[in-house]
Amino acid sequence: MFILDSLLIGGLRFVLDKIVAAAEAEATDDSSLREELLEAQMRLELGEISDEEFAEIERDILTRIREIKGQQHGPLTMSRDDTISGVEIDSFDSESKKSDVRSLKH
Questions:
Q1: DSSP codes of every residue in 15-52
Q2: Nearest to 29 by CA among 59, 65, 58, 60
Q3: What is the C-alpha to C-alpha distance for residues 12 and 1, in angstroms, rounded to an integer?
Q4: Where does residue 99 fall: left (phi above 0), alpha (psi -120 to 50 degrees), or beta otherwise?
Q5: What whole-number distance in Å separates Cα of residue 43 and Cα of residue 50?
Q6: Which of 62, 84, 93, 102 could be disulfide-bonded to 88 (CB atoms 3.0-4.6 Å)?
Q7: Alpha-carbon gap, residue 58 to 37, rounded angstroms
Q8: Residues 65, 30: contact at Cβ < 8 Å?
Q9: Which parts of the chain have pLDDT scores under 70?
């Protein structure tokens, strides 16, 4: 009985994990939004919608695409714990106080 229960629960967990993965993939895919934008542009060219309606649709879709792209890449920030290291200076001119920096790693 215990083996049957663990198989059933394991099978359900597998299916739910697949559903979650598919939902996350769809949430981070902007291709459907791009298709909506293309459709709106075609409707504009056919005269089905006005320039104002298209501008509103375009603004909404581009905002959603930016949100998706922001989630994919994450914010570019540094905290107090982050450090920058590995700066290499090719030369340093002591009179003009200028340096030639080759690379910067963090």
A1: HHHHHHHHHHHHHT--HHHHHHHHHHHHHHHTTSS-HH
A2: 65
A3: 17
A4: beta
A5: 9
A6: 102
A7: 6
A8: yes
A9: 1-4, 71-106
Tens of pLDDT along 81-93? 666 665 555 555 5
Please tell me the distance from the alpha carbon of residue 3 to that of residue 6, in angstroms, as a whole number: 5
pLDDT at residue 13, rounded to an integer: 86
Question: How high is the pLDDT of residue 101?
Answer: 46
* Tokens of residue 54, six digits: 């298209």
Cβ-contact 28, 71 below 8 angstroms = yes
pLDDT value for 21 = 85
* Residue 31: predicted pLDDT: 84
Contact 43, 58 (CB under 8 A): no
